[in-house]
Specification:
The complex is a heterodimer of chains A (386) and B (131). Chain A is built from 14 helices and eleven strands. Chain A has 386 residues and is of the alpha/beta class. Chain B is built from two helices and eight strands; from the N terminus they run ααββββββββ. The chains are: A alpha/beta (386), B mainly beta (131). The interface between A and B is medium-sized, with 34 and 32 residues.
Chain lengths: 386, 131
């Protein structure tokens, strides 16, 4: 395998972008990444997008978007793994460059979620669960994660205050991210006083509905050195992908996320790294409980210890291992197909030392964990400064 | 998806709680599958699930999807009916959701599940009630 580097990142504002279409937000982030990399042509475009059919009534996205960029003729493919579609697009691009099939790849993620109303957005997101044996009964995504939270609380004594601490931390980080959807300071009391969505999860335990796109340019380390000038070269040293049964009723243990654990183990093995080697981490906090369970699955904390770690400030910006410096899905926003790409862009930004007010000093090794549905898929990438 | 064809083909599982047991490794499957996910065998015997079980986890959905707006708040649980077999079901007849707890004993009853979706299909199946 060839060594792969990220030479360009493109992130724009996330939010309720009523004045923009899927194709325009996608093209803006793609152009930003190409400009950041200093390249004007690529061998392949990969696109992570969960459900353009249900959110904007558009399929055949890869050709549509290649053309939108003036690149009709260039190979392009859309990949899907629910909310982990962006991470899957990154892994696809990584594999293309590592294998030698492509030299330079534009990796993108996009979701335009506000062209439909709340009920239709809930339905589209619900299609990431088992529609026949879960959705049939009226369960929602907050409901599925609420079921995981109930088990975690019963087994480990995790509290609603500890769940709220995740939201408080991530909103504090989001205040420092100019592209975040919400620049909003919240307290534990605010979270607990917000509307109950699915017991025990309140509205402020949930990530929002968001329009957004993100992009990366991947190439060989040799070319990255030519393009980069004085900029540090950020390599992707580990990539892990795993699946699990989607249906929660078929999982033996609801207190853990096996797909995340497997994907992380595979990424750590490829990178020859351990959880203790990480300096900065982005995890898939679609709900507050998801961040706690993901940090345990990655191995940052033992089973049941993720909740107290947040409460003790260990994962805060200046804590022992900062988690979700970008503000996470919670504050930055969660345009589902874009999320996995945006997480990696945050890690690149940190490793280059370009994260501004939310910079983790001396960060040299980072990890991004993206997750589909209620943990039915997960993708983990490890990035390092050479 | 509010599909009459899907509703029709799932009658055996929804109405009669038909499940299958792998003849090679005894793995229980609900709904039935083409291949056993545990041992790879493709031969099964039909079984009928028991109606009594224990709540493994639960929630109360307070922001419902389309088709369930009349039933909000909507308690839903994962119930273990046999060792190694769990199902997701609504919990019916709940006067006070704070009475729900992990480990509570429930019994499945045949009920109307949802009725105000776009195609007008009335879906029936099983809900759990306090045993």
């Amino acid at each position: 395998m060839r060594d792969v580097a990220v030479v360009g990142i493109g992130t724009n504002d996330f939010g309720e972008l009523w004045e923009k279409s899927l194709r325009s937000i996608w093209a803006e982030s793609a152009l930003a990444a190409l400009s950041d990399a200093g390249v004007d042509s690529v061998d392949l475009i990969t696109i992570g997008c969960m459900s353009p059919g249900l959110f904007v009534g558009q399929e055949h996205l890869a050709s549509l978007l290649a053309d939108e960029l003036g690149m009709a003729g260039v190979p392009a493919s859309r990949v899907e793994s629910a909310c982990a579609s962006g991470g899957l697009a990154l892994r696809t691009g990584f594999a293309e460059v590592a294998s030698g099939l492509s030299d330079t790849v534009l990796v993108t993620g996009v979701e335009k979620m506000t062209d439909v109303d709340g009920a239709d957005a809930t339905y589209a997101l619900g299609s990431a669960a088992d529609q026949e044996w879960e959705g049939f009964h009226g369960i929602t995504f907050p409901g599925l994660y609420a079921m995981l939270a109930q088990v975690h609380m019963q087994r480990y004594g995790t509290t609603s205050e500890q769940l709220a601490a995740v939201a408080v931390k991530n909103h504090a980080n989001g205040l420092l991210n100019p592209h975040a959807q919400y620049h909003l300071k919240v307290s534990v009391e605010d979270v607990l006083a917000s509307t109950m969505v699915a017991d025990p999860l309140h509205l402020l335990d949930c990530s929002p509905v968001t329009d957004g796109a993100a992009a990366l340019v991947l190439t060989t380390v040799e070319r990255a050195k030519e393009l980069g000038g004085d900029r540090p070269v950020v390599k992707i040293t580990g990539s892990g992908l795993a699946t699990d049964t989607i249906t929660l009723a078929n999982r033996e243990d609801l207190s853990e996320l096996c797909a995340v654990q497997l994907a992380a183990e595979r990424a750590f093995k490829m990178a020859d790294k351990k959880p203790e080697d990480l300096h900065v981490v982005e995890v898939h906090d679609c709900f507050t409980i998801a961040e706690i369970m993901a940090t345990e699955a990655i191995g940052l904390f033992g089973p049941g210890h993720g909740a107290s770690a947040v409460e003790d400030g260990q994962t805060s910006l200046h804590g022992k291992i900062p988690v979700n410096t970008s503000g996470g899905l919670k504050s930055k926003g969660h345009p589902v197909g874009a999320t996995g790409v945006a997480q990696a862009a945050e890690i690149v930004s940190q490793l280059r030392g370009e994260a501004g007010q939310r910079q983790v000093e001396g960060a040299r090794v980072g990890l991004a964990q993206n997750m589909g549905g209620s943990g039915g898929s997960s993708i983990v990438h490890i990035l390092e400064v050479e | 998806m509010d599909s009459p064809a899907r509703a029709w083909r799932e009658f055996p599982q929804r109405y009669r709680l038909e499940a299958s047991k792998c003849t090679a490794c005894e793995k229980l499957l609900y709904p039935p599958r083409v291949v056993c996910p545990k041992c790879g065998s493709s031969t099964f015997e039909n079984i009928t699930l028991p109606r009594e079980g224990t709540v493994v986890t639960y929630t109360v959905v307070r922001v419902p999807p389309a088709g369930f707006t009349e039933q909000t708040p909507l308690p839903i649980a994962i119930v273990e009916l046999m060792e190694g077999l769990r199902v997701m079901v609504q919990i019916g007849d709940v006067a006070d959701p704070s009475e729900l707890e992990i480990g509570m004993k429930v019994r499945l009853e045949f009920r109307r599940i949802s009725w105000d979706g776009e195609a007008g299909v009335i879906f029936y199946g099983h809900k759990a009630v306090t045993a």
